[in-house]
Amino acid sequence: MIKKFLFCSMIALLTATTAFSQSKSKETTQLEDPDNLASQYFSQVMGVAADATSNVKLYKFIYEWIGTPYRFGGNTKKGIDCSAFTKAIYDKVFNTTILRNSRDIFSMVDPLSKEELKQGDLVFFKFKSRSISHVGIYLGDNRFAHASSSRGVVISNLNEPYYSRGFYKGGRIMESFRKEFEIE
């Protein structure tokens, strides 16, 4: 009777250990998956459920650039400026060619108010200038990704006093440019 009990106990322990090991392995695989990492990161930063992120390609792209230092005129991971970062997102994520300068990019959009912004729209700012001096990409929930001159590539909130004061307009690429560049 005792032998039978010990044998059953060992089988149960072995089964539990195997199940735990398989569960850990699956968990590790999920943590190593870049799409899952990007979703988890944005879930934490933006306060949205990971499965609610509608464009993982966008989030993954931004995730890979977070922390890249700012460099005026730069367009690599060694350093990038706001318009080059925005241009890279549109090139790689949306297969769309946009111009290189924030003022020129603004000439390609239909202007929008903050309330009209959707994920993937552009946000334009005027800081200490009468002309547009900064651009980023809207992510939703008042968050946007951009190359900050002081912090590099980051996600910020349009409601932060600095960005709220400098916000000029949002924008969506005009249909005429979409057709010209053969955008879906």
Automatic annotation (TrEMBL):
<keyword id="KW-0378">Hydrolase</keyword>
<keyword id="KW-0788">Thiol protease</keyword>
<keyword id="KW-0645">Protease</keyword>
<dbReference type="Pfam" id="PF00877">
    <property type="entry name" value="NLPC_P60"/>
</dbReference>
<dbReference type="InterPro" id="IPR038765">
    <property type="entry name" value="Papain-like_cys_pep_sf"/>
</dbReference>
<dbReference type="InterPro" id="IPR000064">
    <property type="entry name" value="NLP_P60_dom"/>
</dbReference>
<keyword id="KW-0732">Signal</keyword>
<dbReference type="InterPro" id="IPR052062">
    <property type="entry name" value="Murein_DD/LD_carboxypeptidase"/>
</dbReference>
<comment type="similarity">
    <text>Belongs to the peptidase C40 family.</text>
</comment>
<protein>
    <submittedName>
        <fullName>Glycoside hydrolase</fullName>
    </submittedName>
</protein>
<feature type="domain" description="NlpC/P60">
    <location>
        <begin position="52"/>
        <end position="174"/>
    </location>
</feature>
<dbReference type="GO" id="GO:0006508">
    <property type="term" value="P:proteolysis"/>
</dbReference>
<feature type="signal peptide">
    <location>
        <begin position="1"/>
        <end position="21"/>
    </location>
</feature>
<dbReference type="GO" id="GO:0008234">
    <property type="term" value="F:cysteine-type peptidase activity"/>
</dbReference>
